[in-house]
Amino acid sequence: MSNVTPTDPAKPWFSHPTAVVDSGAVVGDGTKIWHFCHVSGGARIGRWCGLGQNVFVADGVVVGDNVKVQNNVSIYAGTVVEDDVFLGPSCVLTNVTNPRSQVNRQGLYERTVLRRGCSVGANATIVPGLTVGRYAFIAAGAVVTGDVPDYALMIGVPAKQRGWVSRHGHRMTADATGVYTCPEAGFRYKETAPGELRCLDLDEERPLPAQLAVSAKTYDEFKTAATSHKPPATSHQPQGKERRRRKNKERGNGLRNVATI
Question: Greater confidence, 2 or 240?
């Protein structure tokens, strides 16, 4: 077993003294492995990755470069994690669709692929044998039961696509020409076929330019700016509580009318 301490100058990567990195594991330069992690022999972890507290990486797992794995995540055999993937706290990756304690299915693990740049939110579950597309965004708590397209925003149980997100993780709306624009980077996107979105300004496999790899505003700041640019509602359209009050009154009148027939 190889366990590298912060003061060990012989390794170009770091592991906390409480972490266990088994002999045979391959760890890339600049990677940091934090408290109580376990990296099995035969696992391959790329460069500049971060493994938060209590992360498990199984034998045979492949993790790309610049992958961020938050606390309490287990990456089981059969999983491929490409470059720039984000795995949120306590998200769940599985590798057998029909597990039974009485039935030994070791060696029959299903292959799950998390493609470049995708994000899996906190407490989300990815069932085995599927592919999550490039830059897709899985919302917190979602349960993903099928393949996910590039850039898709997936929400709910079971998860359903609720729109498109940019490479920077912003939900986008198409203009009159069918072009989506990221409010942060300015990159344009368009559906090249039904259910298939592509970036018009930067190939999906190319890294971000350095000046776009660091955010200067929070998500809420972008959201507030987008809301402030919406045209005001016309006076004949009641908003918010007033609209709901009128609808409820109309429904109530309808029920009373039915009751008196």
Answer: 240
